[in-house]
Amino acid sequence: MSASVQRVRAMRAVWTRDLMSGVLPFWLRNSIDNEHGGYFSCLDEDGTLLDDSKYHWLQGREVWTWSRMYNNLVGTVDSAAPDVSATETVREEWWHAAVCGARFLDNSRRESDGLFNFSSTRDGSAGLHFQRRPYTAVFYILGNLEFAEAIKTRLKEGKPTGDFKSEDFQRKALDVFEQFRKYRPVCWNSSIKLEWWKRFFRNGVMLL
């Protein structure tokens, strides 16, 4: 084995340990809003909550993160770091964290037009900022799609999923994608929209 390969494996082991023993536990302890659902993002380095506003780009990202971890990490995470593993207890924590955000995601959308707030009050009842850029919508789509896969994973494992159905979350994601495809802000002209739309394709194939 070459020295470069050994170095990459050693780095991967360090990153894996940092993720599993530092990053993920921090967000599990401090970001989950068990009262209203969703996640806090304005946290100090010790986990102190600085602002309870909900930033909706984070809501989709965190649903994606916990769902992705649940779907992909079972047992030993990395042979280069055998002391780091995802036990069933930890995976259940990830599932419940994903559920907390999945129930909150629709609070991102404005009732008037179905577009997305950038931020809202803690309970999601009132939007605080609206941004015409696509970040919140993109992460809403990704979060819903990955959570749909987490539901399928649990069903394969014979675990309860409550009243969640994977097709409901897939449908919500695709509905928003279709809405976004047709959406044209007043400030856009045809050439700008065309360039933006091209980014969803590679070699003539839609990436989503």
Q: What structural class do you assign from the helix and strand content?
A: alpha+beta
Rg (CA only): 19 Å
Give the topology string: H per helix, E per strand: HEEEHEEHEEHHHEE
Shape: globular
What order do the strands of the largest sheet run in, or round the barrel if closed?
3-6-7
Mean pLDDT: 82
Major β-sheet profile: 3 strands, antiparallel
Multimeric status of the protein: single chain
pLDDT < 50 stretches? 77-81
The count of β-strands is 9
Distance between the termini: 38 Å
| Helical content (DSSP H or I, runs of 4+) | 40-55%
What fraction of residues sit in β-strands? 5-15%
Secondary structure layout:
Layout: H1 3-30, E1 42-43, E2 49-51, E3 54-55, H2 56-72, E4 75-78, E5 81-86, H3 88-102, E6 117-120, E7 127-130, H4 135-156, H5 166-182, H6 190-198, E8 201-202, E9 205-206
Antiparallel strand pairs: 1-2, 3-6, 4-5, 6-7, 8-9
Helix pairs in contact: 2-3, 2-4, 3-4, 4-5
Index terms:
alpha+beta, 3-stranded antiparallel beta sheet, two-stranded antiparallel sheet
Report on this structure.
- With 208 residues, the protein is α+β, with helices and mostly antiparallel strands.
- The strands form 4 sheets. A 3-stranded antiparallel β-sheet has the order 3-6-7. Strands 1-2 form a two-stranded antiparallel ribbon.
In short:
With 208 residues, the chain is an alpha+beta fold.
